[in-house]
């Protein structure tokens, strides 16, 4: 039902089932992992009204399991990317794996998936630093930044009659800034990653 992917490693598509509604993937050498992708295989959907909360578990200095909520997957959102590199020193959170005595070794962490009601998933608060920025938030930031630049540059606009000659200053016509702004917004709408090419 679930898969787990770490860049540079083989896909894990067979989690260990530790309870009727709980599954775990082992993450050997977890100290060298930055991001984890958790996804549904597409073979078995969640039952109606159900989804899966995704947890990261690592051993603390005393070898005790520390569980942190990363987020969730559902039939409508069948995959998610989580950043785990900054979580290894955080505090644990409430989790549904408490009664299970999962083996912990110093170099192996785990991803746990707990099948739960969607209404319960909506009330949970994941660890903030586990969220990976998406193209949408990048696009939003870029649009806000270009809006800010255009507004800032436009605030200095003067007419030719208001200009005083100053040989040490260069002036850029306001219509040039407006043209740049419109081109940038159009290209960003067509391809948010156009700047990488």
From TrEMBL:
It holds the Pfam family Hikeshi-like_C. GO terms for biological process: cellular response to heat; protein import into nucleus. Keywords: Cytoplasm, Nucleus, Protein transport, Transport. Residues 6-130 form the Hikeshi-like N-terminal domain. The keyword Protein transport applies. Its main location: cytoplasm. GO terms for cellular component: cytosol; nucleus. The keyword Cell division does not apply. It is found in: Cytoplasm; Cytoplasm, Cytosol; Nucleus. GO terms for molecular function: Hsp70 protein binding; nuclear import signal receptor activity. Acts as a specific nuclear import carrier for HSP70 proteins following heat-shock stress: acts by mediating the nucleoporin-dependent translocation of ATP-bound HSP70 proteins into the nucleus. HSP70 proteins import is required to protect cells from heat shock damages. Does not translocate ADP-bound HSP70 proteins into the nucleus. Forms an asymmetric homodimer; required for binding and nuclear import of HSP70 proteins. Interacts with ATP-bound HSP70 proteins. This is Protein Hikeshi. The gene is Hikeshi.
């Amino acid at each position: 039902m679930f898969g787990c992917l770490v860049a540079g490693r083989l896909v894990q598509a067979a989690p260990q089932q530790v309870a009727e509604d709980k599954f775990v993937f082992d993450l050997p050498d977890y100290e060298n992992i930055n991001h984890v992708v958790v996804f549904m295989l597409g073979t078995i959907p969640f039952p109606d009204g159900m989804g899966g909360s995704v947890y990261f578990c690592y051993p603390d200095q005393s070898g005790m399991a520390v569980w942190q909520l990363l987020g969730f997957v559902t039939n409508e959102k069948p995959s998610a990317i989580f950043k785990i590199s900054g979580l290894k020193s955080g505090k644990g959170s409430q989790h549904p794996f408490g009664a299970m005595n999962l083996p912990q070794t110093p170099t192996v962490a785990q991803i746990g998936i707990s099948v739960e009601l969607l209404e319960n998933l909506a009330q949970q608060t994941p660890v903030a630093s586990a969220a990976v920025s998406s193209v949408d938030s990048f696009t939003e930031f870029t649009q806000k930044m270009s809006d800010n630049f255009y507004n800032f540059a436009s605030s200095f606009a003067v007419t030719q009659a208001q200009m005083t000659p100053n040989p040490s200053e260069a002036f850029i016509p306001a219509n040039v800034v407006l043209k740049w702004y419109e081109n940038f917004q159009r290209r960003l709408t067509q391809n948010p990653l156009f700047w990488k090419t």
